[in-house]
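Input record (Table S2, row 332):
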Amino acid sequence: MENDKKIIFSATQPSGKITLGNYLGAMRNWVRLQDDYNALYCVADMHAITVRQNPADLRRQSMELFAQFIACGLDPEKSIIFIQSHVPQHAELAWILNCYTMYGELSRMTQFKDKSASHADNVNAGLFTYPALMAADILLYGTHCVPVGEDQRQHVELARNIAQRFNSVYGDVFTMPEAVIPKVAARVMSLSEPEKKMSKSNPNENSYVLVMDKPDAIMRKFKRAVTDSEGGIYRSPEKPGVSNLIEIYSAVTGKTFEEVENEFAGKGYGDFKPAVGEAVVECLRPIREETERLLADKASLEALYRQGAEKAANIAYKTLRKVHKKVGFASR
Ligand code: TRP
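Output record (tryptophan complex):
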């Protein structure tokens, strides 16, 4: 890693498929950050098992997510790209940080409250201490910035509190991380209920577009996208469906909202919706094709993720050694 650059760390759980919303809202931003920062990007498979997973699905999804990271433009030469469970220091530091994290703090996490309500039959200890593992992810690498969505802000705040608590006892061990939440992130809404965020957990498959969707599926979903009966193609709070389509079209073509509105002035939804579909198809096509190519070449993919894990472990191991010494573990 280059010394003069700040460090960023982020991760995604391989607990499902990546949507157009995930790509435009998060991953595309990660790609841009690679030049200005020393970046680490991680497939958070250990977080994923805090809810029950089918083992074969989890393994496949981890591979697919790793391949998608690279296909989207995360560059293993510039950034460290790896799978969380391949770097054992994450689990080791998480245990230690658990002992510096308070029951009350964890009880206040909104994600824990939401997930324990939606998985009432499996409120396990891992789900509860999830934020301590996330703090370990971040703190192992001297991370300065954590690019995440608003929903993860509370977890990054907790990581700061844990770091502060540890540092106040043992001196300057951890760098204080900061959440960076993109101000103008493309917020991609559901195609069927445009008041809601696009989400793969919506039971209606037509409500979201997956990065791996084939062109005909993408076209079908955009042709069915919910609009309104007024007919004009412009952004307005009264037109959430049309506004969402304009924003998606703008995000994938790089055109401004005004340019999009001018382009479709006087046209109808019958022209507009397929045009958005086409633009999304062309944006996602190279990513899907490159992901498929990478997944078909298992040996190269393995070499890439092993190399990523090795680079990550080389940094993580130094932090962990320092921590062991501070807390008083006998030297190995
Ligand atoms: N909890 C994050 C999510 O569900 C994923 C994650 C795991 C993460 N470890 C992280 C994000 C560390 C940022 C930093 O989206």
